[in-house]
Design a protein that fits this description.
- This protein is mostly beta strands and 116 residues long.
- The protein has one domain: Rieske Iron-sulfur Protein, CATH 2.102.10.10.
- It contains 1 helix and 12 strands.
- The longest helix is centred in the last third of the chain and has 4 residues, at 112-115.
- It starts with 7 loop residues before the first strand and ends with a helix.
- The relative contact order is 0.25.
- The model has no long low-confidence stretch (mean pLDDT 92).
- Bound molecules: FE2/S2 (inorganic) cluster.
- FE2/S2 (inorganic) cluster is lined by residues 51, 53-54, 56, 70, 72-73, 75.
Length: 116
């Protein structure tokens, strides 16, 4: 049995002013955690930047509807759930990090061990 304790904490990703405009994505990250930051329908979303297909950089892709499109082979992932919309498959997904805006900063909740 694995007794490791996972501790998550809120970490500043960027300022709101540095976040992408409506309908855009950008690559960013904290420590070794690469994040795709998107703004869709006025809301920011933080997804794992690495596409589960062949590790394409989602933050270099684009937004269609409520999905981020991978620039390499056009797989699409919901910004809300991370689930693949193309190809349609519930088990293909990227991690969506909890995100909040506080005092002009964009904060994401990530595993503290991955930030060090
Ligand atoms: S690497 Fe993203 S669709 Fe192929």
């Amino acid at each position: 049995m694995d007794w490791r304790i996972t501790v998550s904490e809120w970490v500043k990703l960027c300022s709101v002013a540095e976040a992408p405009e409506e309908g855009k994505v950008q690559e960013t990250g904290i420590g070794d955690v690469q994040i795709c930051l998107a703004r869709v329908n006025g809301a920011l979303a933080a997804l794992d930047n690495l596409c589960p297909h062949r590790q394409g950089p989602l933050g270099q892709g684009w937004v269609e509807g409520e999905a981020v499109i991978c620039p390499w082979h056009s797989w699409a992932f919901s910004v809300k759930t991370g689930v693949a919309e193309y190809p349609v498959h519930e088990r293909i997904r990227v991690k969506v990090f909890p995100l909040k805006v506080e005092g002009g900063d964009v904060l994401v909740q990530i595993d503290a061990a991955r930030v060090a």
